[in-house]
Design brief:
The structure holds 3 protein chains of 3 kinds. Chain B is an alpha/beta fold. Chain B has helices at residues 4-17, 43-53, 66-78, 90-98, 117-123, 145-150, 160-172, 185-197, 202-207, 216-230, 236-240, 247-253, 267-271, 309-319, 322-332, 350-357, 373-388, 394-408, and strands spanning 26-32, 57-63, 85-88, 124-125, 128-129, 132-133, 136-144, 176-178, 257-263, 278-281, 292-296, 299-302, 361-363. Chain C has 13 helices and no strands. Classes of the chains: A mainly alpha, B alpha/beta, C mainly alpha. At the A-C interface, helix 1, helix 4, helix 5, helix 6 and helix 7 of A face helix 1, helix 4, helix 5, helix 6 and helix 7 of C.
């Protein structure tokens, strides 16, 4: 136990920084969300009107739904792919380190670079993917990947997964490293096949890695706006307009700071609720 | 580029240690989304010329893209570290001017009196003139005459009938008739034709006093778009999500499409493409002349927080002289915003010029603040959606516009 | 299974997994090859190899991006943010790991909230605060903003880490009449090395790759970080491949080189940080 005075003094610098650049801004955002502020000049208090507008227009629930779809796809595919890759690499020690590093490399790049590169890969005429398909004689498969609302969101999700699947794999591999050797050995002696060991031994023992992976990727994906911002600007026809991108657009495209603030508050509530529920549920599962 | 804060610190030092005469040399920071390699707009040479004539003023041109201007400049305007002179357009004036961030250039200046009355009204915001206009630029139809001649057509289409006939002949010959991207190109066509066919002042649509969904003009416009689809002018599905700023331009340059609604600022770049034989024509409409969709584009504004008001004014007034404007509008293939009627368009824009002279001018409503800015994005989105699902009724598309108008005014 | 078949099976599995992993690397190779091709080459043959290396792509990007300066900025900001977050974070974590008073619990909850909050939620007010404090477009401003963004993570790290330091050690020090500050500085701080190394990795990735803060808080080209230089150079309209790809390569190069050299430690550090 530290004295009150020490407690106060030790936490003071962090409190100042967090207070000034985190707590106070959130309070201000909350306040702005009840105004029609344009970011410059005076603003009027307009009560709940921003929030009423958000629920009464299809546009905003649709943006929320897009965000949820994006997050579900990314988290599911990334976690499963990471798990399978980790299970394979765990069984192949000779190439494990090389592959882990190779898969991890894209995570060292920025959203800006990844967004630009994949935008060009998907570009309809001179882009890499369609050229490859044409080269392979699959002309019918060429597609305006980012230009079609049915595929645009998934195309972006793929770029996002490409970027972070190595991270997921590395966390699962760290989880594997924590599985005691004798448990695996016992499984092998019992004559369990490789797949049986994976299904009945490893998956349950990897529960903590699941928790971390799912939580990290959920929060990371929910709040991301960078890839859609760079690759499609939310188009075509709003198919990739996530809630966070909507906020950015309202802020800096339309100068509707008050309105954007109310969207931000909703976003914040959703992120915190999801993080809370996931944490509860996954931790409970771990204990079983 | 030296940061401005150093400069103010330097000049403060100079004030302390030397006689005032020494500190008279001023550095103006000017931001613009033109003046770079891709769109020089004559600015580098003009600035050099200006500095020659005003040895006491140094000009630093800082290129900031238009979209980035929205995010990058406001914090500086508010943060007390503004650029001295900024390139602006009316949507920026609306936000910055009302907040007192810009200097009122006054309606008594020499150049203000030379602005034609209609534009004058549009530019004057609450009795204040915050912008010195540099150009009015055309938005029309780029036509690859090489491809049209292949099917025996000698003239760019002016009317819808011409256009439909050209589309038929081109697609029969296996040539893609038109780029009609859901963003930008399709909206230009629809806005031009909707306003032309309509009977109300576009401003009433933008204020919500009349609705797009019930407007005869825009319903006609939507039907015209359908007519173009039926005439196989374009494949709506591939055009819907095409990027108007990169892929579409490259495709037209590559000679893969015969026509493309776009802005005249592309003329200079297109002219450099070898073997691309094109003209800049008005947007085909039911009127014989076609529609010249004029965009009041850019101008100079002075930050009210600038410490170099006099030098900034000297700079702005200097640009208002006809010989300077001429350099800008020639580089941009634009028209003078002043009443001398000067034009900077090359011969290949003759069809567009003709439409202007025949009285076919419609002002792009966003540039004059007749329509709220968020509506622009909504029009692009809704037309992209429409091209993907042409079965959607007019009302389904146009009601979204009305909603955007409603959302914009609170 | 006979040994021969088993061996063959093993080779095949290895080869298949390797092929899959290499497939994942193709976008990187694509980026690299494209960066050496001219615009016309790409337009004519979207997939070919460079006929000759178009170094002019790089000289142009290098100059227009103000490359060395922006790399120096990223390094300087990373180091400053790491030092500040490590110091403030470990200081705050010390009492938080030891005390379980309501104040401590509220603080921890606040930190958890900070971990989940997207940074653009607070960007509008941060504008206003920065404006009033004169921090816009300054190094101290961007450093403080990043520090605030990383501080919750740092506190979390250090609370876990300090919590695992044996209590006896600290009790003994207390009996020797050490002040709290002396305990922190002479006993705890030297033990925090590994946690700080991990933290600095996260800070580095964040500072090098974040796009929101520098886009909105920095306007002077001389202060740009690498990522924002890439964005400003490539732009958002009329994107040219012969500008995009060299900028992408230059923008990723410093971290990729660092990664190739220290890959094992970086992967271990970042995963360990996440697992804790």
């Amino acid at each position: 136990m530290l004295s009150r005075r020490s407690f106060f003094l030790f936490t003071l610098p962090a409190s100042i920084v967090l207070g000034l650049f985190f707590v106070y801004p959130i309070a201000l955002t909350l306040q702005l969300s009840f105004t029609n502020s344009t970011g410059v000049g005076e603003a009027d208090w307009i009560g709940w009107r921003n929030y009423e507008r958000i629920v009464s227009r299809d546009r905003y629930p649709e943006a929320l739904w897009t965000t949820i779809k994006f997050t579900l796809v990314v988290v599911t595919v990334q976690t499963l792919a990471g798990l399978v890759l980790a299970a394979l690499l765990h069984r192949l020690p000779a190439i494990r380190n090389f592959c882990r590093a190779a898969l991890f490399t894209p995570a060292m790049m920025s959203f800006v670079v990844v967004g630009y590169v994949w935008q060009f890969i998907y570009s309809p005429f001179s882009g890499g993917l369609n050229s490859l398909l044409r080269g392979a004689g699959l002309d019918d498969w060429t597609w305006g990947w980012l230009g079609d609302p049915d595929t645009a969101l998934y195309a972006i999700a793929l770029a996002h997964i490409w970027m972070f699947v190595g991270y997921t794999t590395a966390i699962f591999l760290a989880g594997y490293a924590n599985i005691p050797d004798d448990i695996e050995e016992a499984g092998r002696l019992d004559g369990a096949s490789s797949f049986q060991r994976f299904r009945y031994l490893e998956i349950p023992l990897l529960a903590p890695s699941f928790t971390i992976n799912v939580m990290l990727s959920t929060i990371g994906t929910l709040k991301t706006f960078e890839l859609p911002f760079i690759m499609t600007r939310g188009g075509p026809d709003g198919a990739t307009r996530t809630l966070s991108l909507e906020i950015i657009d309202q802020l800096f495209g339309n100068y509707r700071f008050g309105f954007a603030s109310s969207l931000s508050i909703i976003m914040l509530i959703i992120v915190i609720a999801v993080a809370f529920v996931q944490n509860r549920y996954l931790r409970k599962r771990e204990l079983r | 580029m030296r940061p401005i804060s150093h400069l103010t610190a330097l000049s403060a030092l100079a004030l302390c240690f030397t006689t005032p005469a020494f500190s008279q040399s001023v550095t103006l920071e000017v931001t613009a989304w033109k003046g770079n390699e891709a769109e020089p707009a004559g600015l580098p040479e003009l600035i050099a010329h200006f500095e020659e004539q005003h040895p006491d003023i140094d000009v630093e041109l800082n290129y900031i893209g238009r979209l980035d201007t929205d995010t990058v400049v406001p914090p500086r305007l508010q943060g007390g570290d503004p650029p001295d002179v900024m390139m602006t357009d009316m949507p920026l004036i609306e936000v910055w001017g009302i907040a007192g961030l810009l200097t009122d250039l006054g309606t008594d200046s020499e150049w203000y009196g030379r602005i034609p009355e209609e534009l004058q009204t549009a530019l004057t915001y609450d009795g204040a003139a915050y912008i010195m206009p540099l150009e009015v630029i055309g938005m029309g139809n780029f036509v690859n005459m090489g491809l049209l001649r292949e099917v025996g057509i000698e003239e760019a289409p002016f009317t819808i009938e011409d256009l439909v006939a050209a589309c038929g002949a081109l697609s029969d010959a296996g040539i893609n008739p038109m780029i009609f991207t859901g963003g930008f190109s399709a909206p230009l066509f629809l806005i031009a034709n909707g306003i032309e066919a309509g009977e109300v002042d576009p401003a009433t649509l933008g204020s919500g006093d009349a609705t797009f969904a019930e407007d005869a003009g825009f319903n006609t416009g939507m039907d015209l778009v359908r007519q173009l689809m039926d005439a196989e002018c374009f494949d709506p599905e591939t055009q819907a999500g095409l990027d108007p700023w990169s892929t579409a331009l490259a495709e037209f340059q590559g000679g893969n499409f015969a026509m493309m609604p776009q802005g005249a600022w592309n003329i200079t770049a297109f002219s450099e493409i070898e073997g691309l034989d094109f003209v800049f024509a008005p947007i085909p409409s039911s009127q014989d002349s076609g529609v010249a969709l004029d965009l009041f584009g850019i101008g100079w504004s002075i930050a009210s927080g600038s410490e170099n008001q006099d030098a900034a004014r000297t700079f702005v007034n200097w640009f208002a002289q006809p010989e300077q404007i001429q350099v800008v509008i020639e580089a941009e293939a634009a028209y003078s915003p002043f009443d001398d009627g000067a034009s900077g368009t090359p011969d290949l824009a003759a069809p567009y010029d003709a439409a202007r002279e025949a009285g076919g001018i419609i002002n792009y409503p966003f540039a004059l603040l007749q329509w709220p800015k968020p509506l622009e994005a909504e029009i692009w989105d809704s037309l992209t959606g429409f091209l993907l699902n042409p079965d959607r009724g007019n009302a389904e598309v146009l009601e979204r516009w009305d909603e955007a108008v409603e959302d914009a005014d609170f | 299974m006979t040994t021969a078949i088993r061996q063959l099976h093993g080779v095949l599995v290895h080869a298949a997994v390797l092929a899959l992993v290499l497939l994942m690397l193709t976008p990187l190779l694509y980026m690299l090859t494209m960066s050496f091709r001219t615009g016309t080459e790409i337009a004519e043959h979207p997939l070919g190899l460079p006929t000759e290396l178009a170094w002019e792509n790089y000289t142009r990007a290098f100059a227009s991006m103000n490359y060395l300066r922006s790399v120096a900025n990223s390094i300087g900001i990373t180091v400053s943010v790491t030092v500040l977050t490590a110091l403030f974070g470990s200081m705050a974590a010390f009492p938080l790991a030891r005390n379980s008073t309501p104040a401590a619990r509220i603080f921890i909850m606040l930190v958890a909230l900070g971990l989940a909050t997207p940074n653009f939620v607070t960007i509008t007010p941060i504008f206003v605060i920065f404006r009033d404090l004169g921090l816009l477009d300054t190094y101290p401003g961007i450093i403080l903003a990043f520090t605030a963004l990383n501080l919750p993570l740092a506190v979390f790290f250090y609370v876990g880490f300090i919590g695992s330091i044996p209590k006896d050690l600290l009790e003994a020090a207390k009996l020797d009449n050490c002040s709290d500050w002396q305990i922190f500085w002479h006993i705890i701080r030297p033990l925090l090395g590994p946690a700080t190394a991990t933290l600095s990795l996260f800070v580095m990735l964040m500072v090098w790759n974040d796009f929101t803060y520098p886009l909105l808080l920095l306007t002077d080209r001389e202060k740009f970080t690498v990522t924002i230089s890439v964005y400003r150079f490539v732009g958002n309209q009329n994107i040219q491949p012969d500008m995009l790809f060299p900028a992408a390569v230059l923008g990723s190069l410093p971290l990729l080189v660092l990664f190739v050299v220290f890959q094992r430690r970086i992967v271990a550090g970042v995963t360990a940080g996440a697992v804790k």
